[in-house]
Amino acid sequence: MKTPILIAAACLLALLSTVGTSLPYPILPPLFASGAVNDLNSFLGLPPKLLFGIALTVNPVGLLIGATLLGPVSDRYGRRPILLATAFGAAAGHAVTALALLLESYPLFIVARFVTGLMEGNSSVARALLAERLAGQDRVRALSLLNGAFHLGWLVGPLLAGVTVGFGITVPFIVAIAALVLAGVLVMLAVPPGRHGAPVAPTQASLWQVARRDNVLHLLRHRPLRTLFAIQLACSCGITAFYDFFPLWLVEVGGYDTARIAIVNTALCGVMTGAAVLAGRIVAADPLRQAAWYACAIAAAVGAVALGNLWVGIAAIVLFGIPNAFYNATMQPWAAERFAAYGQGAVMGLLSTTFCLASIVTALAGSLLVLVDTRLVLGSGAALSLWAGWRLRRWHAASSAAHPVNAIT
Question: pTM of the predicted model, to two decimals?
Fold first, then answer.
């Protein structure tokens, strides 16, 4: 497969998959925080904000399991069958989500969000497909474009939600289903059958045996990967605190509804998409040091939302997209190069797993902290991202002292 076609196929898949993922996010905060009582936000008499936090948690739990298993499994069985199964599976998950909202069934909604998250853990597979087929600056550009496609999906999805939710609460999910089915068709057309993208020899082990033996948690036996995990977890907690709770902050501080949340999110994702494309054109001469500065800039943006008024917060929300895009564009290619021997599916899966785990930690802790003040969640996230920046600087200094010639790797 020619490189431009491969990159285009992966980016279109990422865009269409993320559209399906991001549609619910502007819809959920008004359902749980607007004050209107329904069967969905009054389940078992629990506080609506607590139910909202649980709803945020179950999707990342599914993502965590999917990200942990799907990358290594695709190393064994190939990228194509895994991408096909997850695209169509996520479409089914959104269909059940729409049914749950129609019935106002909170338990069914939780199950649907979990299954959808499980299927959405395929981002590591798409990243592995590009990481193993490309090298050097081509890999950096391709992964940056892929990140840009993921960010663009977060723009298009909420925008579609804001436009279509007025026709009925299930309409955005019908759009999501169509997008994911289209993504599956794209995989069938762009990625040829066979073991394309699976670098290891065929195995006679069962799927369960492969998942148990090769899941990404086994990478944590290696000290450098444990260091990477700790840094990524801290920075990702700051990022997920921002993603999960800035819509609720907008509802509380500005009284925003779904349409206005979608507008702010559109501005954020537009900036982030443009920054991701630009980041792929810049050669990171000193990746760890640059990533440290980007992590600190992420902390500053999240902290500004926590401490600022409505307009300062909105400006920080939009500008957050710049350091976030550059951080990902720096760390992902560096990790793909530095730890390639462990399998690209496993390495990309570790990064995705770390992000999902951060989402779970943030949602669980946030569901309690938000009962006091939403700004506590955002402030805690800012502090964790700042620690990640400090730890990256220490890692860079230690690497430079040990290997002064090859410090960037």
Answer: 0.68
